[in-house]
Amino acid sequence: MYCGPSAYLKKVKWKYTVHSSDINKLKQYIEKVENLEVEKIEIQEHISDIYKQAKSDGFDPKIMKKIIKIKKMKVEDRETEDLLLDTYMLALGLLPPNETVE
User: Do the Cβ atoms of 90 and 100 come closer than 8 Å?
Assistant: First the structure.
């Protein structure tokens, strides 16, 4: 019979001991991650600003993001994705048969 988490915790006592050197290491790891999270937010804000500047110059940020995604892909993966996209679009009637890429 399920009695809920508090009933379970009363029956089983957990006890952990951590050495002071390990506590310091843990604190350092936590601080490093927290600092990196702050940096990540700052970098994301800078990237957002760049997209806003590009948009004000007439560029489409969505297309720019797609290009960046494509540049990160392996050539084989990109070719496979393009082939599947063409195949699906052709099957759904979104691409005329004479416009398929070979």
Answer: yes
User: Is 61:51 a contact under the CB 8 Å cutoff?
Assistant: yes
Contact at 8 Å (CB) between 64 and 51?
A: yes
- Indicate the domain borders of the chain: 19-59, 60-102
Q: What is the pLDDT of residue 102?
A: 56
Entry field: residues in the chain: 102
CA-to-CA distance for 12 and 10, rounded, in angstroms?
A: 6
Predicted confidence (pLDDT) per residue in 30-58, tens digit? 999 999 999 999 999 999 999 999 999 99
3-state secondary structure of 46: helix
Torsion on CA atoms 79, 83, 85, 86, rounded to nearest 10: 140
- Please state the separation of Cα 34 from the chain's center in Å: 18
> Which run of H or E residues covers position 99?
none
Read off the amino acid at residue 48.
Answer: S
